[in-house]
Write a structure and sequence with these properties.
334 residues, alpha/beta, TIM Barrel, eight-stranded parallel sheet, 34% helix, binds zinc ion, Metal_Hydrolase, carboxy-lyase activity, Amidohydrolase, hydrolase activity, ACMSD
Length: 334
């Protein structure tokens, strides 16, 4: 849901909300938590005019609308304790660094290059920079290769052709995936979820059908050494997701975004089905964090409270699967 901010711009342009940043986490906590790898964090410049409070699981109610009415509200803020957005870049960075330390979270971060550099210089061992492209108009293949080769970036993502009305197997992206394959970069690709009324509100090119996991198959066949993870786990297309992972052993998924936006019963049914189908070793933990620092703990709670997961499965999802997928050194996290 990387384009959520665009949605906010449109939906909330009259509702400029200056949230008071809430200090999340317990500063007194001294016991070191077990490490977590969050594979899906967005770095962006904070714009207080376009940020809003947010109630987790806001998509539990998706009212309809009409073409001549106001668009449906994308995020509801009517809960008892909505999450507050960070008000400044500095606040956001402080929240990130605090999460690195107190919650023991290492993050794969994509988005604004300046912000990623700042976070990375403040916490070089905790920030894994990721470089994304979703449309060949953004840069040439040569420029893309240079960016991936400069030593700073370790991951390619978030690639989100769905919002551009394109399949991930569209040939205009093929050479970029070829570069990632050649350089051994894992790639995160947005597939599936878009929220309520995405095509009506901000992304007229968005197509639900372009989030079908099967659309990855041709691209994967052209790049047999490419390692990808499907961001948002192809929600809600579980059957295709399971079939694709069965056919392609290098495909992983992340749980970002949908686990704190769609109804809880629904998202647990989805996660449970992935595990039930045998893929507990291929699920990565992620938040899709944008501007609400409290979301880190909200998302962690979803996994911790999943009573159908064993403690080992939870540790696999929070940490071990990402160590394996990104070829990290687990001893560095102790
Ligand atoms: Zn996404």
């Amino acid at each position: 849901m990387k384009h959520l901010t665009n949605t906010l711009k449109t939906t909330f342009f009259l509702a400029i909300i200056f949230g008071v940043f809430a200090l999340e986490g317990n500063a007194q906590e001294t016991k070191k938590r077990l490490p977590i790898i969050d594979v899906h964090v967005h770095a962006m410049k904070v714009n207080p005019n376009f940020s809003s409070e947010m109630c987790p699981w806001f998509l539990k109610d998706m009212p309809g609308s009409g073409p001549n009415q106001n668009p449906p509200s994308f995020i509801n803020t009517g809960c008892v304790a909505p999450l507050k957005p960070a008000k400044t870049d500095k606040e956001m960075q402080e929240a990130i660094l605090r999460a690195n330390k107190e919650l023991n979270i290492t993050m794969v971060v994509s988005g604004d290059a300046d912000i990623i550099h700042k976070w990375h210089s403040a916490a070089p061992n905790r920030i894994i920079p990721s470089f994304g492209i979703s449309n060949s108009n953004q840069m040439t293949v040569e420029a893309f290769r240079d960016s991936l080769s400069n030593g700073f970036y370790k991951v390619m993502g978030e690639v989100a052709p769905q919002y551009q009305g394109m399949s991930p197997s569209d040939m205009s992206l093929d050479e970029y995936f070829g570069v990632a394959e050649e350089l051994g970069f894992p790639v995160g690709i947005h597939m599936g979820t878009g929220g309520n009324g995405m095509a009506n509100i901000t992304s007229p090119k968005y197509r639900a059908s372009l989030g079908q996991p099967f659309l990855l198959e041709d691209m994967l066949a052209r790049h047999p050494k490419l390692k990808i993870w499907v961001m948002h786990a192809g929600y809600p297309m579980i059957d295709q997701m399971i079939a694709l992972m069965g056919a392609n052993a290098y495909v992983y998924v992340d749980l970002a975004g949908f686990i704190w936006s769609y109804p809880q019963e629904e998202i647990h049914a989805y996660l449970k089905r992935l595990v039930q189908a045998g893929f507990a070793k291929r699920i990565l933990y992620g938040t899709d964090l944008m501007m609400w620092p409290g979301l880190l703990e909200t998302s962690i709670g979803v996994i911790e409270n999943a009573d159908y997961l064993s403690e080992d499965q939870k540790r696999d999802i929070f940490f071990n699967n990402a160590v394996r997928f990104f070829n990290l050194d687990a001893s560095k996290f102790e």
